[in-house]
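Hey L., structure's done. Input below.
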Amino acid sequence: MHTHELKLIVYSFIGLILFGALLLLMPFAHNGELRFIDALFTSTSAVCVTGLIVKDTPIDFTPAGQAVIMLLIQIGGLGYMTAVTFLAVMRRQKIGHRDRLILQESLNYPGMDGLIRFLKIVFGSIFIIEVIGMFILTLRFWVDMPLEKAVWYGAFHAVSAFNNAGFSLFSDNMMGYRGDWIINLTIPGLIILGGLGYIVLTELYHFRKKEILRLSTHTKIVLVMTVILIVIGMGLLLSLEWNNAFKPLSWDEKLLAAWFASVNYRTAGFNSIDLSTLSDANLFFSTFFMMIGGAPGGTAGGIKITAVALALIGVWYTLRGDTHVHIFRRSVPAYQIQKAYAIIFVASFYVVASTVLLSEIERLPFLRTLFEACSAFGTVGLSTGNGGVLSYSALFSDWGKANIILLMFMGRIGVFAFTVVIVGKAVESRIKYAEGKVII
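Output:
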């Protein structure tokens, strides 16, 4: 892990957030009054592809302001340094070793070999997927609105969905399309593709073209865990909400609502149901899904499904008394299991500490505060709401909003990167002490 390169990535995100906030504060970008903390919150939510809102996007922001938000989502999903490097590649500028290190850290790419080719494939994939999503959504929205407006709504929601942002130009988000099969398949489809990560998408592309004969262990874990978590999420939603939040819905609407919510639980903030009507049990279980997030090297935040998978595998083999950890006939190094444990522990500490602090500052219901904190850290964007169309964060004081801003930022750049930048990297010691016995 290169500390200097990590710092540059972190500072680039901070710079982009501040620049976005200043743009949103311009008179052309918003309607009515917009305080700096709310502009900063919106910019952070867009750059960190979260989707929590303290201002109603279609009402409080002009079309120009909405375009700024969409641009922040797109650049934030890619990473500022990644976007800048790609522009340099397109201008045929030479990419130095230091820039390649920054790009490698930004994309979570495993090595230097083939990095620039990988970057080109990433941008090509993003363009194709978002254009297809925009085309489908535009045709659907065209039924309900003029073509020009439908094109804009299609583009905005395609970018927001693929980048796992959850921003919507509908004040009720996707609740008006709860029973619509096209919307309920297209939006989650884009979210899943964005949440898989660029490494997985690129590998699937090469596998389909038969350029590689087998998928890597990383890709297999991501695909299997994605399916498992979506199915478990749907099962919990259907079992706990069938006669509660889903009671007024028809059986097919219940299935669609459970599918839509389960996909959005981990990575994006779109919602087709009023989350304030969910049972406490469902709100509690959903915090685990939001903390998990998506795959590394993609647009999602959170702990990451690979870290959770390795931790579960490590626990399983530890309980069996087996020191040789393996999956899909491949061994897993011990340091990776330890790193997964560390990520989960540190992330949980940050979220719990922030939730306790928020509870003390705001004096609002604990479970909903915890839900909001997990949503912010996982860069999910789901919220139980403020009683209207805004997120629960709209009820927070400026200090509470600042806490959520920090959680969104931390969840986007990763707990390890955040900790290394704040604390610094430990200096490797050449001293080896005698082994001590500890009873567990």
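The chain has 18 helices and two strands. The CA atoms of residues 32 and 392 lie 21 Å apart.

-- N.
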